[in-house]
Specification:
four-stranded antiparallel β-sheet; Methylamine Dehydrogenase, Chain H
Length: about 300
């Protein structure tokens, strides 16, 4: 089901930076952080057995910012700097060479990408932000074809799609744009810094959640309209980079991933949106691995269990 596509479902999906053969790259504009390792190891632990690994060879990638799965369960990744968008066949853990040029697209042309902080699939089209291009680009998930470029008039930091309405919200340096993916109509929304500069946003249960400067904010959204100008918040000090995902079966339940703390948490936001309960913690800052900025959580048709 569409709404189960990016969920943490009874399996733990970890994306780690590999600690071997590490090279350092400068973080993108505006991060203010240090160096980041380049090579990664993707580990999928399904019911205690290792289901899939990728590191090195044809299945390698450079410092991914975000990723999602298409309707076949194959994985599309927004990569570091200008390294474009890469696709992997889940079943064989190899590049999908029929996607773009030898498995990569977004390195040139109208759908050129750079520092793509956010990416998400809707109706088998992969939408991802392009920082220097001041745009969101639409790439067909099956073959990597460039379908459309949305010029948003600012440098994008975050993006989330309401899968039930086909409405894309993208926060950028000049404000927030709402894009109707059915007719490609774009609307400017007047918002404050929390929704413009947050690196992690997620729409769930009629709210957009955004993490900014050690606080989690929640803004009401109804009928595909712009977010409310006022919202609620609570303290959530987890570093500058925070990936967000939501459980569609419980709109108040979020999974968060802190890049700087190497930690994933499951939290339940209270009804008022001004506090939360911590349900689960995975990882720790003392471990030798580091998570990437965002989470990608794959639905394999398994319902969310006790995890």
């Amino acid at each position: 089901m569409i709404e189960m596509k990016k969920i943490f479902i009874g399996l733990f999906v970890f994306i780690f930076i590999h600690i071997e053969q590490v090279s350092s790259k400068s973080l993108p504009p505006g991060t203010g952080a240090g160096d980041v390792p380049a090579n990664i190891l993707i580990m999928l632990d399904k019911s205690g057995s290792m289901g899939w690994r990728m590191s090195g060879g044809t299945a390698s990638m450079r410092y991914p910012y975000d990723a999602d799965a298409d309707s076949n369960g194959d994985i599309i990744v927004s990569q570091y700097n200008r390294d474009g968008v890469k696709k992997f066949v889940y079943g064989s853990s190899t590049l999908d060479t029929g996607f773009g040029t030898n498995g990569v697209t977004g390195k040139s042309g109208n759908c050129k990408t750079s520092y793509s902080y956010s990416g998400e699939v809707y109706n088998d089209v992969y939408y991802t932000t392009a920082y220097y291009e001041q745009a969101v680009v639409a790439i067909r998930a099956s073959d990597g074809a460039c379908l459309r470029k949305y010029d948003i008039g600012g440098y994008p930091y975050n993006m989330t799609i309401d899968q039930s309405t086909g409405t894309l919200y993208v926060g950028h340096s000049g404000g927030l744009k709402k894009i109707n993916l059915s007719n490609n109509q774009m609307t400017n929304c007047s918002v404050i810094s929390q929704l413009r500069y947050s690196y992690g946003t997620k729409i769930s249960g009629g709210y957009i959640y955004a993490h900014y400067r050690n606080r989690m904010y929640r803004y009401a959204v109804s009928n595909s309209n712009c977010p409310s100008s006022s919202g609620t918040s609570f303290s959530y000090s987890k570093g500058s980079y925070l990936g967000l995902e939501a459980n569609p079966n419980n709109s108040n339940e979020l999974w968060t991933l802190s890049w700087s703390n190497s930690k994933m948490e499951k939290i339940t936001v209270n009804g008022s949106g001004n506090g939360y309960t911590l349900n689960k913690t995975i990882g720790s800052r003392s471990t030798s691995f580091y998570f990437i900025k965002n989470i990608f959580l794959l639905s394999l048709g398994i319902r969310l269990g006790s995890n």
